[in-house]
Specification:
Layout lengths: L7 E5 L5 H6 L3 E7 L2 H11 L4 E3 L17 E4 L22 H14 L6 E6 L10 H12 L3 E8 L9 E8 L16 H8 L3 H5 L16 H4 L11 H8 L4 H12 L3 E13 L2 E9 L18 E6 L2 E6 L2 H7 L12 H9 L4 H16 L8
Parallel strand pairs: 1-2, 1-4, 2-3, 4-5
Antiparallel strand pairs: 5-7, 6-7, 8-9, 8-10, 10-11
Helix pairs in contact: 10-11
Length: 376
């Protein structure tokens, strides 16, 4: 890459284009997603040039731009790898889409134009799904093709008031020195243990990538919420019905927030728990200024609630799509779809923008420049 040129990226499973926002100065030469609503949102915000709505399995190398890209970014579907999902692994229908992406990388490689870098982003469950076999298989696949790679577990909570840990596997063909060993906070116990399960070529190809720890997060959940007068709150009956799902611990949290002076803002999800041998739906809340990890609105329990305790009372409502996008680090100039469900899905399936930006500036661009990896 010329030092003065924009690095180029091929965006697979592009979704709402949040990785593109985070990469910033990179030029997207190609973007692909199967979901029509996501593709429409992508086009509304970035235009349709280079955008292809299609199943990754239906793409061929001839559909990709000529030349060699600097980066291929793949945020493949995570449902079957998630700790909250069925954990069917990389062989399952949705997460198996990774292999549709990988065959395109192999085809580019056969033509001598594989991208210089690959980023594979997924849930942290990839480290342990199928007893760690999925991660080991992916590592061996990269090593077999001559890629050097490493993994970082990064939680968006370091930049935005949302707890959102994600795994980023970064692979390169270039000879760039990594760190001598794992370094907190991004080489979590899960990453270290996954590395420990590797052997042979996969272990030899491993790199401990460094990334500087960000400055302390600015702002909190309340600062990202809409004004109270601009949103729809539940009526008293619906609020009372919601709060009946609280268990004793979470009821104590709410009571403490309600008894405190001033305004306390929390979030919550409904979850199904086993209690005394039976399934019970519970509302689980937090009042620490941090939102729970955004999820897609596939069911009623996947909608995140906002609770405000003030002056001895409690009000409740749903988190809005705009608020969800703010929690992903997306500015209000981003054009959201009219559908609430579609907007929430864009955020729930996305990657946090400031995390991508930190990865780009702290690791990807230095790797393209041939600089040694450092961590501050």
């Amino acid at each position: 890459m010329n030092a003065d040129a924009q690095p180029t990226v091929l965006e697979f499973f592009a979704g709402a284009g949040l990785a593109r926002l985070g990469l910033g100065g990179w030029r997207t030469a190609f973007a692909n997603d199967l979901d029509p609503a996501k593709t429409r949102a992508y086009a509304a915000n970035f235009g349709s040039m280079g955008l292809r709505q299609d199943d990754v399995w239906d793409l061929s190398v001839e559909d990709l731009p000529s030349g060699r890209a600097d980066l291929a970014w793949a945020s493949s579907p995570c449902q079957d790898l998630s700790l909250a999902g069925t954990r069917g692994g990389l062989t399952a229908r949705r997460s198996g889409a990774f292999w549709g992406f990988w065959r395109l990388i192999e085809a580019l490689d056969d033509q001598g134009r594989a991208p210089r870098l690959i980023v594979i982003e997924n849930v942290t469950g990839l480290l342990t799904s199928n007893g760690g076999e999925d991660f080991r298989t992916l590592a061996e696949t990269l090593a077999h093709r001559g890629w050097r790679f490493g993994a970082l577990e990064i939680d968006a909570i370091r930049w935005v008031p949302q707890s959102r840990p994600r795994l980023f596997i970064v692979a390169t063909r270039d000879s760039v020195a990594g760190l001598s060993g794992p370094c907190a906070p991004f080489h979590s116990r899960g990453v270290v243990e996954a590395h420990g399960r590797l052997s042979g070529d996969a272990r030899a190809a491993w790199c401990w990538w460094g990334l500087s720890e960000p400055l302390p997060m600015r702002g909190d959940l309340d600062s990202l919420l809409e004004p109270d007068a601009d949103v729809v709150w539940f009526d008293d009956d619906r609020t009372a019905q919601l709060l009946r799902h609280l268990g004793s611990l979470h009821r104590q949290r709410l009571d403490a927030a309600a008894a405190s002076t001033g305004r306390s803002v929390g979030t919550g999800f409904k979850r199904v728990r086993m209690e005394k041998g039976r399934k019970v739906q519970r509302l689980e809340i937090r009042f620490d200024g941090i939102a729970g990890c955004l999820r897609t609105p596939a069911g009623g329990s996947s909608r995140q609630y906002v609770l405000v305790a003030q002056d001895g009372g409690v009000r409740a409502r749903f988190l809005t799509p705009r608020e969800a996008m703010r929690l992903m680090g997306v500015g209000d100039d981003y054009r959201l779809p009219a559908s609430v469900s579609a907007g929430l899905k864009l955020a729930g399936d996305g990657v946090a923008v400031p995390v991508v930006r930190a990865l780009s500036e702290g690791l990807l661009k230095p790797l393209l420049a041939g600089q040694a990896v450092r961590a501050a």
